[in-house]
Amino acid sequence: MKFTAEQIADILEGEVSGNPSVEVSKLSKIEEGVEGALTFLANPKYTSHIYNTKASIVIVNKSFTPEKTVTPTLIKVDDAYKSFSKLLEYYNQVKLNKFGIEQPVVVPESTVIGKDVYIGAFSYLGENVVIGDNVKIFPNSFIGDNVTIGDNTILFSGTKIYSECSLGKYCIIHSGVIIGADGFGFAPNENGEYIKIPQIGNVILEDFVEVGAATTIDRATLGSTIIRKGVKLDNQIQIAHNVEIGKNTVIAAQTGIAGSTKIGENCQIGGQVGFAGHITVGNNVKIQAQSGIGRNVKDNEVLQGSPALSYADYNKSYVYFKNLPKLAKSINELEKKEYGNS
């Protein structure tokens, strides 16, 4: 796709300084700009690059005054960083603006499909699936029986949604995500063999949830595993059966949450955090990366370590952790003096 400086300025409500007809078809950093690329200058640290960049168009603040000749066409806006972000969002919408049903796909007669839907090739939809308006399902996706998908939700290639699950509106599900696989439920018999416990619940994602690539969310044994409105999940997260995550909580990559744990609203959880099962984490909790959570957590706590301590206690303790060899040496010397003098 190609855009002229004039078209971009109209989108951003900016002013063109230079050739309004110059075209761009790619984006770049200002220091790596090439002909036909669009970039931006927001941080004064990078100002020197605007005088030698080969980019065709640069978005700048209206306050920018060049000290020497600038070759690219400039688009002047109130806030270059925000305008560039707006342009990225617009570009993404255009890029994902697909419609229609490609072939081959499997779409049973019982499927209900809304307006302006896109279903990519080699996708499979089960019986009684309900798809809302403007949903995008990219190629090689699997949608099981009785699944519902709300308006404006996007499923990228290779997504797997097992039967009975429900996705809300404006969700984004990235490639390789599996929603609704069996929870890890087994019970030993009298011979010590593990017998599988049927997992007959489902998974519910509320509106505006984003799930990162290769994340897995297990169905409940009974009832539902629930991801509340506005939750953002990074890549490669494991969420076990009957977990509930409160609205607007964000969780970084490789975190694992064991079964039946409840996490509150507006929490911020770092990467590689491990949660034991059947615990409750309050609202507005912050947990540093690689922490281990094995107990209930109250509202507003800030935790670090494994097992996790309060963030302040952990930092105080760390002063002693790193000095343990010196402390041990001092104790040994004191003991030698004590016993040597006795």
Report on the structure:
This protein is α/β, with parallel strands linked by helices. Among the domains are: 3-95, Udp-n-acetylmuramoylalanyl-d-glutamate--2,6- Diaminopimelate Ligase, Chain: A, domain 1 (3-Layer(aba) Sandwich), CATH 3.40.1390; 311-342. The protein is built from four helices and 39 strands. The strands form six sheets. Strands 8-10-13-16-19-24-27-30-33-36-38-39 form a twelve-stranded mixed sheet. It has a nine-stranded parallel sheet with strand order 9-12-15-18-23-26-29-32-35, with no helix packed on it. Strand 38 and strand 39 (309-310) form a beta hairpin.
Between the first and last Cα atoms, what is the distance in angstroms? 88 Å
CATH superfamily of the domain at 3-95: MurE/MurF, N-terminal domain
Shape: flat
Supply the CATH architecture of the domain at 3-95.
3-Layer(aba) Sandwich
Quantity of strands, as a count: 39
Largest sheet, if any?
12 strands, mixed
Structural class: alpha/beta
* Poorly predicted regions: none
- Order of strands, main sheet, comes to 8-10-13-16-19-24-27-30-33-36-38-39
Mean of the pLDDT scores? 94
Proportion of beta-strand residues:
25-35%
In the CATH hierarchy, what is the class of the domain at 3-95?
Alpha Beta
So how many helices? 4
Helical content stands at 10-25%
- Taking all Cα atoms into account, the compactness measure Rg is 27 Å
Function: Catalyzes the N-acylation of UDP-3-O-acylglucosamine using 3-hydroxyacyl-ACP as the acyl donor. Is involved in the biosynthesis of lipid A, a phosphorylated glycolipid that anchors the lipopolysaccharide to the outer membrane of the cell.
InterPro entries: Hexapep (IPR001451), LpxD (IPR007691), Trimer_LpxA-like_sf (IPR011004), UDP_GlcNAc_AcTrfase_non-rep (IPR020573)
GO molecular function: N-acyltransferase activity; UDP-3-O-[(3R)-3-hydroxyacyl]-glucosamine N-acyltransferase activity
Domain UDP-3-O-[3-hydroxymyristoyl] glucosamine N-acyltransferase non-repeat region: 22-89
